[in-house]
Here is the input.
Amino acid sequence: MDDFIAQIYRGTTVYGVLHVKPMLVLESGSAEIRPVKSVPAHFTPVFRATPEEVRTIFAAEGKETYEIGASVDDEKIKINLDLERFVERSSAIFGRSGTGKTFLALPLLADIVRQSIASTLIFDMHNDYGYTLKGDRQKFKGLKQLGSIASRVVVVTLDEESSRTRQAGYEFALQIAFAHIEPEDLQMLQNVLALSDVQVNALYTLHRKFPKTWVQKLLSDEVDDEIQALLDGNKLTESTYFAMQRKLSRLLNFKFLRPQTTENFADRILAHLTRGDSVVVEFGRYGNDLPAYVFVANYITRRIHAMYVQMKERAEGGGGEEPRKLVIAIEESHKFLAPEVAQFTIFGNIARELRKYNVTLLIIDQRPSQIDAEVMSQIGTRITCALSDERDISAVFTGMSGAQQLRSVLASLDSKQQALIMGHAVPMPVVVKTREYGQEAYQYFAGDLQPAVERYATNSRKLGRNDDDGLVP
Amino acid sequence: MIVGKVLRANMRTFVFGTRIPESDVPTFGALVQTRNPYRQATIYGLIYDIALKDDERGMVKLMSVANDARDEDIEWLRSQLVPLEVSVLCVGYQMHDGQPIRHGLPPQPPIALHGIECCEAPEIEAFTQQLDFFRLVLEAKDVPCDELLAATIRLAAGTRKKGTARDTFAVACGRELARLLSYDGARLEGLLRRLQYERNSHHG
Here is the structure.
């Protein structure tokens, strides 16, 4: 177009329209940020917020915060999450594969532990949180290697062989005795193992008849007299029983399931959590086995749920202390929170109401569209990295009034190190360049002994000792 | 210089008659002024029509149908200053000397037989500092609005220095038109093409 004509049209007949959603009010001369209750009058001049104003809004002065990153406009402006509010309700980290969800979640959980905001229980599907976090080209330190919190993190493994191969230390191997399994623990596997409703009901029948030995009997190759009597009495049809047995025989592949165990390891995990420790449950090779992951996560969480409800009720009755806040981090959480299972699972229950009992979820997932809408609406803080599926982008905004305008913001995020944060823990939705996890974070989480550790490493090098663990220094 | 006197007037337009030589008659789109002495107002207007009238003796009519009119007779008749009627669209006024020029209809129309003067370059430049009169022109009835506006802009641009000042004025006019005609893209485009043509002619 001719430059003359372009000069005329530009800003008169053709112009861009910026839609601005009023979010907060910061009175001049005041540091108090309030939610907006009105709209500006017509012809009120619009200015970009100054760095100082942005800093004031996201500094969360006087609160326990975690610096999750910096403003994408100005890297000098740090964006802080209010950690108290973050753990107050269930939260979520969404993003398609490879966008750095784990790199975001790990230091965040580490700081929750460091500041003693809550205990954390991490179902570590891919063995990333405990000792080493696998990057694209290098390894990074897991929670257990961060000096200031190492003593408060307990790594539990389901797969000792894998842990040994990876040279990842662990506190104990989690084993589950058949006698401790309840039908509800297996009900979660209904979809994964394609159990019918009739078969699920049969599990309850068996448990009622043989409370301690029902799993042992069910997985046994031989049909004992008691079972036979049940079949003969038509309390259970043979076809149901054997179909159920066939499907559940997969459990026999789980080496962490044992006829007997030396102790109740789930109770040991609970003891750690109530003491204020954080627990990382490493799945080893079982991380790729969905039934194993779903079973163990459900098994442990059900018991935590029961205990926390009990502790809370006792505390309300004046008979004990309030249970310590607990954040349960689950990856692939849509497996537990899909619409068809969320209302039955313990995770759906926690997401919906367990904050009253001081337990909340940190959902880490790449398919928010597959999570039940009711659960989504209960999520307080959403940290969303890049998503490409339209349904997932829409789902992120489920239950957040007026957030639809942010769709385009979400759709334009970089695929790495950028996230849209909105909800309970930030005063207003904000896009951040997330903090890199590496040397700087190690310094931040370094304990008092860190200087000594570094001196040791330096001296070892000088002395020619090679104890390189393959980690980033 | 007085170029004519008011024949008739209403609030929006007035007509003046003139017998000055045709070469001295102000052109279509030119800015002229007259006064309403009762109101002490100077009234500005744009010439939107120039009509040639027959002379009182009917000589022009006769000559126009004569088969053997001689050239010297036609020249003689032309030298007799056949009257012209010039129509003017009111676009602004100034209540007292030194007061700001207002773009709009004057409080009263010009009075009969008052003299009409052509505006000089500084007055044109001063009048076209603001472009609010565009709306009056665009909304005028029975006036070739678009042509009139294009001619006026060309004349007003001619009072500015060549180069940036002239270009800036042309762009400002275009932007004002774009605002006023945002509802009528085709008309706007036609006008802008005219402006562009005039501008390129100047540059050429």
Observations:
- The first strand of chain B starts at residue 2 and ends at 9.
- Chain B has a mean pLDDT of 89.
- DSSP finds seven helices and seven strands in chain B.
